[in-house]
Description:
Keywords: Membrane, Transmembrane, Transmembrane helix. By secondary structure, this protein is mainly alpha-helical.
Amino acid sequence: MGYMPQYNGFGYQVTYAVLLSFFTFCTAIQYKMFNS
């Protein structure tokens, strides 16, 4: 936890942003298909 905290923090933010975007994208696709 104490090794390169800035790098780990940055990587965590990027990973979280990517996963959140992917989850939102999948949800939007399913919602669009469900209403079509």
